[in-house]
Structures are given as structure tokens and as C-alpha cells.
Amino acid sequence: MERKINFLGDVFENAVARFPDKLALKKEDVTYTYAQLKNMVEKLKNHLISLGLKKGDRFAVHGENRPEWAVAYLAIVRAGLVCVPLDRLLSEAEILHILRQSEARGVIVSENCIDNIESVKGELKDLEDVILMNKYGELPAKKEVKVSNLNPDDLAVLIFTSGTTGTSKAVMLSHNNILSNLHAVEQVIPVDETDTMVSIIPMHHTFEATAGFLYPLYKGSAIYYPPSLKPNDIIDTFKEANVSCLIAVPLLFEKFLAGLHRKIAGASLTTKVMFRTISGIGAVFKFLRKPLFAKVRKQMGMNNLRLACAGGAALTAKVAQGLELLGLPMIQGYGLTESSPVISVSPLEKPKSASVGTIIPGVEVKIDDPDENGIGEVIVRGPNIMLGYYKNNTATEEVIRNGWLYTGDLGKFDSEGYLYIAGRKKSLIVTQSGKNIYPEELEEKLIKSPWVREILVVPRIDPSTKKELICALVFPDYELLEEDSITKGKTYTEEDVKNIIKDEIRKVNEELPAYKKVIQFEIREEEFPKTTTQKIKRHMFIERAIKV
Predict the structure, then answer these.
(1) Domain ranges across the chain
(2) CA-to-CA distance for 285 and 232, rounded, in angstroms?
(3) Is the peptide bond before 341 cis (omega within 30 degrees of 0)?
């Protein structure tokens, strides 16, 4: 009989009871069975308590994805402390800010990130203890300590949504917030002890922590960590794990498709014709997709893949359709850190590539103040909604009203209950005639061009007329342009590239009403700056003047 799990630190208990010798976590030579995982978590938990820490004290985790990171997180919450996950790519100033704001008593850190902690330690009066992940084996044995007086509604994790000094907000999630999300996800994404996963999204991110770390351990699955995020290391880990479930940001899937298409572009004419023929057959006869592209999936270590889920950012229709054509079982999820994070998931039996799926059990979603097209702000209510922002009542009251979380995302439902996200409320462009323009809708159309690698649609004020214009910032696919120039024996000039993009925008504009047309554009020579989950930092470009 399975034990009811009420606290995050116990999430692996049922798996330990059922199959203690089964692999739980692996990265290169570091492996933990479920029994070994529990023993190490207990050892570290007892050590933390021996330091004189008390219930509710904050303790940070800083490092790359690895089994020891998982041990740190679980030991902290099992000790009744509050875990503060840190993005390993933060600057020293950002780390200092978060550790100071959270009043962290200590940090468990990887040897690769220790320099950052040592640099800021002297400026933190509350930070007393630093524990290295690769020194767990040297921790002295401590007396077993039972943690009492824990409550499922106690604060368990404190997640800073931004590392920017002075502007970050810390989301407070309880044990029950996250566990309720696990129980809901369990009903829509079936995973069990036969499954293997590869962890790619940074573990400090709530989507990975809930769906790619806690949920697999709750179900008894095995989690593998690649040595690095280099393509060859990821593919080798896919093959080693014989990966069956993959949760990743859309960029990984985009790069997978782009790499495949580059290989095809450089192949012989016979291979190109064969690929087009197979693609055509697969597009018409869906049941043939899996056998037709079996060799491609095997080369990528995905021949055993039964489920791929994109989250953390929007998946474009172009990529979703490309993956479907290859026979990869692709679904999407949607959520926020503030909702622990999952709100909706595509049904496995009937996904819609343009939708983020249907609402998970136990969660309510409404569209607030919808317009004539049914689009309004997505608001959410349920046991997964955060306790609030840490020491920031004003910000909490702005987003949680009458028990509803106002997400800031704009969306709508179709007649079958599928949710569609139109964009961010802050990104909405309202014309002088009162028309609503959703930048993400235009970006979705423009990104379909093979010549466009990344794009942002933003409002601009015309200095002469003072009218707001729709403008596109475009990062072309320079690799494809280079391949095309070699094939044609022609060198593309800056003017050529500009004309190619201009023509692509013209084609899209022909399908749009006048008020939605893209009037200006700018060519970027480098990728847009992104978050660790590869979302473009849109706010950095809203106010910047465009080159005309």
C-alpha cells in the first residue's frame, strides 16, 4: 500500500519502499539507487539540523544539474527548512541580492560555482554555512533526527523570478502547492518506474523542478543528467538512458529540427528527394510517420521516446508540426512559477499544436474581461497557487485577487476546452482606433519563414507623425543564408539580406488587415538575449528606438 505523501522531502518514499535498488539518479560516474538517495538525503538532513538551523530557515542551492543538486533540495525541505534555488548563471551581484533578500543561512554549492559564493560570502551577515556538493561523503555521521511540527501548508521553496537587483520577486510555494500539482499532473501525464528521463532545463526553474525532478522521483522513474548541454553530450545521454520521456524548452526541439534540415540541405540530391517524398507521405498518412523516420530518431537517441513535452516558453506551430511529422509524440504544457507551475497540458490522445492543452484536474481557469474574439486575461484558482511574494504584500495583492491569480497572460478557450495563449498583457499593442494587436500572433506568422531565426514584434512611435507603428526586430537564419550562398555560388550582402526579410514581411502583410501590418523592421546581427529557459527578454526592446 502506497504511503500518502504530505511533504516534499518524502516524495521518493513510495519508490524506496517498492524498488530500493532501482536507479534513481545518474550523471556520468555518479549514481544513486532509490535506497542510496534516501540514505544520502537523510545524512545531509541530519547534518543541516545539527548546524542549529530551525524550521523555516532559508538555505540555498547553487549549481549545475546533477544528482547532488537533487539531494540538496530534498534534504533542505526534509529538514523543515526553506529551499532557495539559484540560477547558476547569475552574476555575483544578483547572487548577493537574492541571498541577502532571502536571509539565507547557508548554501549547498557545486565546486564549479563555489567562487561566486566565496566572493559574496563576506558581505552576508546571515550566511554561516557553505557545503560543497562533492563533499557529501565526508560529512560526519549525525544522530537521526525526526522533524516534527511540519504542516503541508508551510513554506517549502522560495523562488526568485528575476535576478535583476532591486526588481526581483520571490515566489513562496508550500509543500501542498507543489504536491497538489504533482497529483494533478499524474492524472494527465502517466509516468512510471519503467520510464527514463534526461534532465536538460536548469533545475532551479520550477517547471523542471516539478515535472522533471520531483514527479519522476515520485513515480519511481530514472533521471539522467548529461555532462554538458553540447549536442553530442545530450544525444549520448539520450542513448545511454534509452530516454522514454523528455521535458525540454522549445529551443532544444527547434535546434533538433534545424540540425536535421541542415543535414538534408548538405546531402545529395537523391537524399533530398527521398526526404521530401517521405515527408509528403508522412504528411498524408500519419500512421506511417513513426516507421518512416525511425532511422532519424535512432540517430538522435530518441527511438524509445514515447512522450516529449515542451514547456518554459511558447512552442511555435512550425516546430510542433515538424516534430509531429517525424513521428515524435509532442505535447505542450503551460504554467507559471506562481502556480507551481503547471496549469494546462495537451491531452496525449488528442493534442492540438496551436494550443497549450486543457486545464489539469483540481484547477480552475477563467478568461477575465474577454474582447469580441474571446481573448482576455487568464486567471487561475486552485491548491497550486502560491502563498504570495516574499515580504511583498503590494505585489501579491496586485496578482492575487479574491483567490484568483491574474497571470498577465492573454488567452482564450475553444469549444472543446483547449486553452490558447495570445501573448502577454503588457505586450498588447492598442491602436489609436482601439484595435488590439497581439505581437506573438504576428511573430508566429513571420517565424514560419525559413529565413527568420528569431523575431520580436514591438510598438514604435513615429517621430514625425507621433503615431504608433508595428515594427519587427529580426535575427535572420545566417547559417541557412550561408548554405544557400554556397549552393548558388553567390555572396549575400547586407542589402540582399534586408531585401529577403523585406519580402518575407511583405508576404505576411498581404494576409493581414491594414491595422496589423508590419510597417518597419530592423535586422539584428546576433541572437536576442534570453532567460535560462530561452525566452527572449522582450522588456529590453519595448522602449528602444528602431533604426530607420
Answers:
(1) 8-150, 428-540
(2) 32
(3) yes
Among residues 171, 233, 174, 165, the alpha carbon closest in space to that of 199 is found at: 233
- Tens digit of each residue's pLDDT (9 = 90 or more) over 192-211: 999 999 999 999 999 999 99
**CA nearest neighbour of 338 among 266, 291, 427, 400:** 400
8-150: CATH topology = Rossmann fold (3.40.50)
Interval 385-397: pLDDT, tens:
999 999 999 999 9
Residues 6+ apart with CB under 8 A from 105: 51, 53, 57, 58, 59, 126, 127, 128, 129
Using DSSP, state whether 273 is helix, strand or coil: helix
Q: What is the pTM of this model?
A: 0.81
User: 203 and 85 in contact (C-beta within 8 Å)?
Assistant: yes
Rounded to 5 degrees, φ, ψ at 152 are -55, -25
SS3 456: strand
CA distance 58 to 248: 29
Low-confidence ranges of the chain (pLDDT < 50): 163-166, 267-275, 277-289, 291-292, 544-548
Annotate 161-219 with DSSP letters as a single string. Answer: S--STTT--EEEEEHHHHHHHHHHHHHHS---TT-EEE--S-TTSHHIIIIIIIHHHHH
Query: 3-state DSSP call for residue 524?
Result: coil
Query: Is the domain covering 428-540 a CATH 3.30.300.30 domain?
Result: yes
